[in-house]
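Exam prep: given the inputs below (a chain plus copper (II) ion), describe the expected output before reading on.
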Amino acid sequence: MRRHPVAQMVIVGAIASAIGIVIALVIDWFPADAAEQAGPIDTLYDVLMIVSVPVFVLVTTVTLFAVWRFRMRPGQENEDGPPIHGNTRLEVIWTAVPAILLVSLCSYAYAVLVDIEEKHDDQLVVHVTGQQFAWRYRYPQPGGRAIETTALVLPKDRPVLFKVHAEDVIHDFWVPAFRVKIDAVPGITTEVRATPTKLGRYPVVCAELCGLGHAVMRSSVRVVTPAAYDRWLQEQTAPAGGEATGGATAGGEGEAGGGGGADLAALGRETFVSNCGSCHTLADAGTSGAAGPDLTTALRGQDEATLREDIVAPDARITEGYQAGVMPDNFAETLSAEQIDGLVAYLASVSR
Ligand code: HEC
Ligand SMILES: [Cu+2]
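Solution:
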C-alpha cells in the first residue's frame, strides 16, 4: 500500500467524486421551472457541477495527502526539504487540462446564452422599471399609448422581451422561476428574454442591494392563458379611458379648476394603483403589495391631514412593525399636487 500513493489517491478521489456528484445531482437546487429558458440553464448548471466536483475532490485529496504524507517527524525540526527544479511535463499537464476544461465550459455556456436569448418575431415587449423599492411595468400599445401597472401579467407560451430600466440606483430584475436575471441600471436599458411555459404566480425579486427596503423589493409575475391575458389587457385600458392611462402629468393639471370630489377620488385611485399598489394591499384598488401595511385595515378612521403627512413625509410617523426609509419620501416631488389631493381624497373615502 505504502508504495502506491498515487494509486491510493486516485481510488480515494474517484470514490469521493462519485459520492459528491450523486449528492450534487440529488439535491433539488432549483425553484419551479416556468419558462423555456429553465431547461437549458438547469442542464448547464448540472454539467458545471459534474465537472467541478472532481476538480474540488482532486485539489482537496492532494492537499490532505501532502499534509499527512510529508508531515514533519520528530528530529526533522532543522531539516530543509529536498531542492526542486520543476517538472516540465507536470507543468504542461496542469496548465493544459484546466485551459481545455475552461474553454470548453465557456463555449458551452455561451452557446446556451445564445440559445435562450434568441429573438422571436411575435415577441411581447414589456418595460420593467425598478425604483426604490418597487417594480413597475409598462406595456406599449398600438397607437403609441402604453399601459402602466404594478402587476406583471404574461400570456403562456408567448416570447417576452423585457426592457429593464432603473429610476434611481442599480437594481436587478430577477425571476427565479424563469431563470432570468439582469441588472437595472440608471441611464441605460438592459434586455432579457423569457418564454413562460407554465400557468401560475411566481416571485419577482430585486437581486441587487439597493437600499434599506431592498429585502422587500418584491413583486410577482402571473402567467395566464392568452385569452385571460387579452381580457386583462382590456380591463387595464377600458375603465381608465383616454385621460387616465397617461397617468401622471399634463392631462391632470389642465383639469385642476373643475372636477368634483368623485373625479378627484378617481384620479387618486388610479395614482394609487400605479404608484403605491406594489407595496400596499388595498382591496378597493385591487392591489396586493406586501412591503407596507395593508391599507384596507390600517387606515380606519384616519383624518385627511394625517393621510397627507403619511404620503408626503412618511418618516414622520412609522407604522408599528415597519421600518422607516422604505416608503419613498419624495412623493411631494414625483406626484403633482392634484394627484396627492386625489390620493388623500380617495384613501379617506375608502377608509371610512
Ligand atoms: C416601496 C414601498 C412603498 C411604496 C411605493 C409606498 N409605500 Fe406607503 N408605506 C410603506 C411602508 C414600509 C410603510 C410603513 C412605514 C411608514 O409608516 O413609513 C408605509 C406606510 C404608509 C401609510 C401609513 C399607514 C398607517 O399605518 O397609517 C400610508 C397611508 C401609506 N403608506 C400610503 C402610501 C401611498 C398613498 C403611496 C403611493 C403614493 C405609498 N404609500 C407608497 C411602503 C411603501
Ligand atoms: Cu432594488
